[in-house]
Design a protein that fits this description.
Number of helices: 11
Shape: globular
Strand content: 5-15%
Structural class: alpha/beta
Largest sheet: 6 strands, parallel
Radius of gyration: 21 Å
Strand order of the largest sheet: 3-2-1-4-5-6
Number of strands: 9
Length: 284
């Protein structure tokens, strides 16, 4: 692996470039982003060496790369997959960092097959921040994080092995799983907490607005439970649109659980609920 091209130079894309450099990658890293500010930020941070001048130029740089990293939202990942598949060659690798995987895997099985184009390896690093942007990128963002893969084939190419090795050099742990299982689990452990925090923060804004008493008495508990509510819609729109069923199932289950709590505020059932919650936390 001597050349990497990162499409999407925001937080995750720029952090990937920085992580490669920190791990000792001595090859060339180019990047492209729809935002000139993000590309400039990635260059400023040292995450990329050069930048594509246009989408057409991006396709040319992709042709030259050994690994193409799609670090954009899921719907944009799918769009780039359609553009890249006809122009790439065997021996190249395309991988992504999308938060949902089933639709990406299904598309990859249509586009990246037959040995006439690049290999596609769906990936998802379980790392990030409430806010995005290249200027918030960190070389250590993935250190200690789980980097999930949902491979479309049991056969592993040489370039795929190289990429997996570099991910390990980032300090990440890796785990392969089925795409459907990935989306189901992420709906519970990642997407539901986001939706819950967003709903709670929006509810408090509707109910209290900028009432000074909230900041005065809310304290740490309020800050922690609404922290994810600071995430922008642009980061989560594609998750909601491509994992609608599993996310909706988790929200329905939560609604039912909250109803159970509401109905048992004055019964021993509330004590049992706290016991279950404590047991979950103690195991983690």
């Amino acid at each position: 692996m001597e050349r990497v091209f990162i499409i999407g130079t925001g937080l995750i894309g720029a952090s990937t470039g920085l992580a490669l450099r920190s791990a000792g990658f001595a090859g060339r890293i180019d990047g492209w982003d729809a935002s000139q500010l993000e590309m400039a930020g990635a260059v400023q941070m040292g995450a990329i060496d050069g930048r594509a001048a246009s989408r057409e130029d991006a396709l040319e740089l992709a042709r030259l790369a050994d690994v193409v990293v799609l670090a954009v939202p899921v719907l944009a990942i799918k769009d780039w997959m359609k553009q890249l598949a006809p122009v790439l060659r065997p021996g190249q690798l395309v991988t992504d960092v999308g938060s949902t995987k089933l639709e990406i895997v299904e598309l990859a099985q249509q586009l990246f097959v037959g040995g006439e184009t690049a290999t596609f390896l769906p990936g998802h690093p379980m790392a990030g921040k409430e806010s995005g942007g290249a200027l918030l990128a960190e070389a250590g963002l993935f250190d200690g994080a789980m980097w999930l893969f949902t491979p479309t084939s049991s056969e592993m190419t040489a370039i795929e092995k190289d990429w997996r090795a570099w991910v390990g050099c980032f300090g990440s742990r890796t785990l392969d799983m089925d795409a459907t299982r990935h989306d189901e689990l992420c709906a519970w452990v990642s997407h539901l907490p986001q939706m819950l925090s967003t709903a709670l923060a929006a509810l408090l804004e509707d109910r209290f607005g900028d009432a000074p008493e909230i900041a005065a008495i809310g304290g740490r508990a309020l800050r922690e439970t609404t922290r994810l509510g600071a995430s922008p819609y642009s980061m989560w729109r594609d998750v909601a649109m491509t994992n609608t069923g599993p996310v909706a199932d988790t929200l329905l289950a939560l609604e039912q659980r909250l109803q159970h709590v509401r109905e048992n505020l004055r019964t021993p059932e509330l004590r049992d609920e706290f016991a279950l919650a404590n047991r979950f936390r103690q195991r983690r």
